[in-house]
Amino acid sequence: MNISSDQSELPTLAVFDFDGTLTRQDSLFPFLRMIVGQRQFWWKMLSFSPVLMGYALKLIPNWQAKEKLLTYFLAGLTKEELQQLGQHFASIYIPKLLRPEAVKCFQWHQKQGHKTILISASLEVYLLPWAKEMGFDLILGTQLEVYNDVITGRILGKNCYGTEKIKRLQELFENLSDYCVYAYGDHRSDKELLKIANYSFYRTFLATID
Which SUPFAM superfamilies is this protein grouped with (predicted)? Predict the structure, then answer.
């Protein structure tokens, strides 16, 4: 890929989605399964199936189905308990989910001195410890509400999904046209992110040179 001389003079942002882009699969269900155990996870998912069906039939919006799921599994945990679980998941489970080619691409951007950004609808409780260890410059994910030091299960603010990703970026970088933006995604919810980038990669990665 050739970069125009005008764009090569701009500071560069390398923006990565997480689930399905950096990883081979969704991360939320493995996280919830780790918390409650395999048997209990499937029993809970069976009882939760009416909500999942409503989401599949587009009767329940994404954020609402997700919030119901998070409340069902996580409400009542203390903030400290959830942070410990997030750290454990980040250390032990996430490395097994990663795409080697995605990691290689991320590391190439690091070596070029580009500002690397992880932006995802996944929970910050496990994104933050993993992404900080990897060396991402900025991590933007979905946060959970805490009341009296206890997790309610409700989403704090908005689910970092679709157009919300652009809003989050614009809060940090007011004029994205002042940057050369590389964006990596894998899902229809990433289409807005890919659309604003100078170089968009849908289910593929920049061919890098070691």
Answer: HAD-like
